[in-house]
Amino acid sequence: MSTPDTSGYEELGNDIRLLGRLLGDVVREQAGDDTFELVESVRQIAVEGRRSGTSSVDDLQRTLGEQPIDQQLHVIRAFDWLSLLANTAEDVHVERRRRHHRRSGSGPQPGSLEAALDAISSTGTPIDAIASVVADLQVSPVITAHPTEVRRKTILDVLGVIADLLEERSLLDDSDPARAEIEAALDVKILTLWQTAILRLSKLRVSDEINEALRYYDASLFETIPTLERDLERLAADRLGVDDLDASSVVSMGSWIGGDRDGNPFVTAEVMRLAIQRQAETALGHHLDALYALSTELSMSARLITPTPELEALAEASEDESRFRADEPYRRALRGMYARLYAFADHVLDAGAGALGGPPPRVPLEAYPSLDQLLADLDVVAASLRSHGARDLAEASVEPVRRAVATFGAHLCGLDMRQNSAVHEAVVADLFAQAGVCPDYLELDEDARVEILSAELTSPRGLRHRTAVYSDQTRQELAVLDAAAEAVAELGARAVPHYVISMATAVSDVLEVAVLLKEIGLMTVATDDAPASAQLDIVPLFETIGDLAASAATVTALMEHPTYRDLVASRGNRQEVMIGYSDSNKDGGYLSSQWNLFHAQASLLAAADDAGVRLRLFHGRGGTVGRGGGPAYQAILAQPAGSVDRAIRVTEQGEMVAAKYAQPALARRNLETLVAATLHASCRSADAADAPDPRYVAAMNDMASTAFDAYQRLVYGDDRFVTFFRQITPTNEIATLNVGSRPASRKKSQAIEDLRAIPWVFGWTQCRLMIPAWFGAGSAFDTFAAADDANADLLTEMYGSWGFFRTIIDNMGMVLAKADIDIGRRYADVLVEDDSTRSDIFGRIEQEHATTRTWHAHITGSPDPLNDNPLLARSLRNRYPYLDPLHVMQVDLLRRFRDGDDDELVQRGIQLTINAIATGIRNSG
């Protein structure tokens, strides 16, 4: 086992101390000496408490409890900003270490493309087989609207400048006078933060979420994705001898923001059109700027070079008669290309190309019919440059523009539609009733539903008619579908590539969507000349433990349906299936969820193989371990062999979007990791020899069942648990944070079943119990070990030999290190009103936590749950002292608020502590 590199900590420590000192100076200057002394006193109490291993809660309570609310708010803000600044320094340090390794020649770093190829080659995989996989790679991160990003865009922008300044400072010698100038600039930025409101005044609208997501394209993605694809092509040429690889479709971004209606009533047809238009504006604005810049850069004179006839033809077609460019064929050609793209944008954008801000063309030309013609023209420009010895210029200047056009097109990213199966069945029932097809569709059993849906999928006539009176829900859903069809007609099929069905449980759930797609022209019925076809993928999402268990049977039945099988054939003979980490975890707990997800993938792969189709899995992972988070490379490699078949889609949610895409270096590291892991996993054999040991499978079956029962007894088996959860966590107060447009619950209900997974995890994170990521595991290990004397050793063997088991244990360790029973007890003692409820339920949580920690130590061989992750261990040690006072203040403020203190500052303090604790933990939901 390799030892992680821990060198360079001193440099990181210096950065954090510098930022802390500058923040202290700002606090003293802005809030006064008394506030500064209070913050410093609180910091010292917390640090000493952690250093000595004794609880500092009582001392913190004595120091803070009698302070006026305005002073408490200053303390909360100071610790929040300190955590954010420390996070920024850590991000800068990670990239600094990567550069150090590259300079020192220490070899490819884990997660890189080079390291993945080395690992694959070491297994003896033939080069041609590796090249075949590389040629077919498709990796799609999908940004969702799940609201756990509590930081404002304004703050993220300032932190980006601070990161750049730290980076610049690290490149200077200690004696360089420029360091003082950088520190002065840092001081100004920290002052800016202190005088900036941490929280939003109003709740985000979907339109705001759309714009928030789009900013990452200019921030990093436009630069990073084409560069990564180019590097992959060069690596394929150097390492595999493949000189003609086109990697322009390896990374394709996706989005749910504006297309995901599941539980969000604010996503309407108008919102979906806005999302598509804003995406198109972002893409086309970028391409127009790039073409205009290229037309300025390529100043070659025909008096000095001889362009190809094809380039000359492009120059003539531009109708550019400027005497200043008479001998500059490239500039004339590119001005013409700009004019044609401008006309294309003017046609497809509701606001017209003028809204993009670029200069209108001097000579208007006919619009490109599609961007394929623009790509062909860029090929002409590059080929002409190469013909007269300017190959390097073609590679450096033209190819990036071409790659961006090929990758982002006019659509920027694929906007998925998503809706709950219950809505689909209601809409189809309304359509059938109004068309006289079936008056009581909702009363039919599954077989009868499939029969009537199958008949409808062979009929060329539509269901809608002008005299029908549809429900509001039906009209709204059909309007969204019509907006999708318009987008596909204008921008191509890449604009709306998938339809995700939440809570899919049966064949009829999928066929209902096919009927709706037929209604808007995105599914075509079979004719004598052609089979049925679809213009987008229909993607069932299996979320609960029960649905995951039945998923393979559902897919098998779908593949046996003749019309649906034709639809799959029309989509490249590949069926995409989404699996949900969040709801399966909320349903059955971490260990049970992870095993059922693994088992479902293996079963789905077998079902697809039997049907002769390829399977693409879409992983609905959140940022936290309780929602499927954790290191991406290990997570992808831990999937069943063969389940990652050259393609993967994965959600990027909430605060993880900024953490991964706010800066080019972060985006490069994240995307390269995803591509490298997908390449590595796709080259593994799916043969029986690579299947897990049957003893391991049997063990997991037993433990997952025990863990499920233990978790269900706690969460769903005690009527008092809902009250306990609502009192010990600030979940009700979290709903007041203006972090997203989506309601916290699917229904107006206090039930755990109706609560969304994000506030469920967010709430447990705030009180530091974090039960979604470990509860039930200790009982499972205990019961399994008690059944046979050899089982305790088997668990250790599984950890050492099976990547899947090691990954879930290591991820659990990360959460066990962040969980704090003493902090959780403080929440329980102060906020849970009933003594017996508190004693019984918290007592069970405390006992299970102790059992889980004991078994984690046995399985890994270390009492430290972060023994293999010293980087995270050090980070947590540094930030824990700053979390302790925040928890003390949050508990006190929650108690005051719930006792009837409706002071606006008390409510603001609660919101600020929620934000600050999420920042300190570095993930929320």
UniProtKB/TrEMBL annotation:
GO CC list: cytosol
Cofactor: Mg(2+)
Main EC class the enzyme belongs to: lyase
EC number: 4.1.1.31
Keywords, sorted A to Z: Carbon dioxide fixation, Lyase, Magnesium, Pyruvate
Domain of life: Bacteria
Any one GO biological process: tricarboxylic acid cycle
Stored Pfam families: PEPcase
GO MF term set: magnesium ion binding; phosphoenolpyruvate carboxylase activity
InterPro entries: PEP_COase, PEP_COase_bac/pln-type, PEP_COase_Lys_AS, PEPCASE_His_AS, Pyrv/PenolPyrv_kinase-like_dom
Known catalytic reactions: oxaloacetate + phosphate = phosphoenolpyruvate + hydrogencarbonate
Disordered: region residues: 93-114
Function in brief: Forms oxaloacetate, a four-carbon dicarboxylic acid source for the tricarboxylic acid cycle.
UniProt similarity note: Belongs to the PEPCase type 1 family.
Protein name as catalogued: Phosphoenolpyruvate carboxylase
Record organism: Ilumatobacter coccineus (strain NBRC 103263 / KCTC 29153 / YM16-304)
Record lineage: Bacteria, Bacillati, Actinomycetota, Acidimicrobiia, Acidimicrobiales
Underlying gene: ppc
